[in-house]
Chromosome partitioning protein ParA (Pseudorhizobium pelagicum), 238 residues
Amino acid sequence: MPVISFANAKGGAGKTTAALLLATELAHRGFRVAIIDCDPQHWITQWAEISGPIRNLEVISEASVASLQCHLRDLASRVDFFIVDLAGAKDALVTTAIGLSDHVMIPVQGSAMDAKGAAQILDLLALMRDKANLDIAHSVVLTRVSSMVTTKALLAIKGLLAARGVNVLNTPIGERNAFKEIFEVGGTLHTLDIAKVSNVDKAKENAAAFAQEVIRLMPAHVIRSPRLRVFPFGRHAA
């Protein structure tokens, strides 16, 4: 069962949105997912409180350096994917979570500050590799990409990161009303009222493409097949 952490040392990079989109899309496909909410703002916990039970999805509302590994161990038998939403920081909990991860997703908007926050996580990953012999897979996902951003500009950003040896997902996460709406009303993209929210279908396509690309990055032997019978999980605190 893969552990996927979302990290950027700067807040506001679209980290929580990316984590929630991946988690809810995986759950929609029948995978059993646990989100561990390590962000002190607890946006995903607040989303869970207004959403109520979501099929195949459980939210751990808090975690500490001491409890994180316990959560991973205790839930391992009934979870197919762990998604860890980390603080916009580079602290002991972020370091611990990254060290326990199978893949680290680094969300980046098109700003210098986001790039610096991402660079801090990349430096931490390099330090773990060099000093602790932990070679942790990682990728950058471009977030809040506006329709005004040209394909040429995106290719330039990807090329710059690729030159540093950083994998960049082909699927950027767009700036969409539907992504904001699920934090306001709860639920998932699949439960939004299409009469009230624009371009829900496009948002679903974006989330589905993102999730599919992430799944393909995971080693085949660590992914369990989605269950045919699905049950609501719920939410609990650490």
